[in-house]
Amino acid sequence: SQKIEQNSEALNIQEGKTATLTCNYTNYSPAYLQWYRQDPGRGPVFLLLIRENEKEKRKERLKVTFDTTLKQSLFHITASQPADSATYLCVSGRGSTLGRLYFGRGTQLTVWP
Amino acid sequence: SQTIHQWPATLVQPVGSPLSLECTVEGTSNPNLYWYRQAAGRGLQLLFYSVGIGQISSEVPQNLSASRPQDRQFILSSKKLLLSDSGFYLCAWSPQGGASGNTIYFGEGSWLTVV
C-alpha cells in the first residue's frame, strides 16, 4: 500500500519567513496530492490539491509542488503568520478509487512573532 | 453550500458500554461517507466508507460497525467498547465521481474516552 511520510513532526519558524513542509510517498505515483490544515481538536480542512501532471499550484500565500522524480511534494507558506500555526497533513489519492486516501501523520507548524 | 454535522462532540463511556456516533451531511446528495479515527500522535486511520445506502466497506477489523440508513446519514456503533477505542473520531464526505480529485470534507470530530 501507499506510504506517506512527512519528515518533520514539528517545524518552528519566525513570523514573516517562508515555511516549507515536505511530503514523500513510496510505491506508486499518486494521481494527486492534497494538503489539509488541522487545528487542535478540529477536523482537517482542505487547502490545496495538485495533480501528477502539474508541477506547481498556488493559492494566495500557499504554494504546492509535485515532483514525481523525487516522489515528493513541498508545501510552502510565504510571509507566515502566527495564525498559520497548525498541523498540516499531506494526503495521496489515486483517481476515483474510493476510500483510498493515504494520510501522512502531519507536520506541526508553529510560527512565532 | 454543503455542511456536515457530527455528534456528540465529546463522550465519556465505560468499558463494555455501547456507542453510537451520528453524522449527517446537508446540501448534497449521494455523497461518499467516511469514518476516520485519529489516535493521539498518530495519523488518520480510515475505519469505514460508504458509497450508498446500506453499502459499507470496512478497512480495519475491530469491534466497531457502521451503518448508512439514509443517503446523508452515517452512524458509527459498537456493542461493547474497549479501552483501545478511545480517540478522536471524524466523519467525512466527498462528492461522487472522485476521478477529479477525491477531496474530503470533515466534520468537527467526536472525542471518545473509554474509562
Q: Please count the beta strands of chain A (DSSP E, at least 2 residues each).
A: 11
Distance between the termini of chain A: 41 Å
Number of β-strand runs of chain B: 11
Identify low-pLDDT runs of chain A: none
Structural class of chain A: mainly beta
Beta fraction of chain A: over 45%
Subunit organisation of the chains: heterodimer
Number of helices of chain A: 0
**Rg over alpha carbons of chain A:** 13 Å
Explain what you see.
The complex is a heterodimer of chains A (113) and B (115). With 113 residues, chain A is an all-beta fold. Chain A is built from no helices and 11 strands. In chain A, strands 2, 4, 5, 9, 10 and 11 form a 6-stranded mixed sheet that branches. In chain A, a hairpin with a 2-residue loop joins strand 6 and strand 7. The radius of gyration of chain A is 13 Å and the shape is globular. The termini of chain A are far apart. The mean pLDDT of chain A is 89. Chain B is mostly beta strands. Chain B is built from no helices and 11 strands. In chain B, strands 2, 4, 5, 6, 9, 10 and 11 form a 7-stranded mixed sheet that branches. In chain B, a hairpin with a 5-residue loop joins strand 4 and strand 5. The mean pLDDT of chain B is 90. The A-B interface holds A 31-32, 34, 41-46, 49, 51, 89, 91, 93, 95-99, 101, 103-106 and B 32, 34, 41-44, 46, 49, 51, 57, 59, 88, 90, 92, 97-99, 101-109, 111.
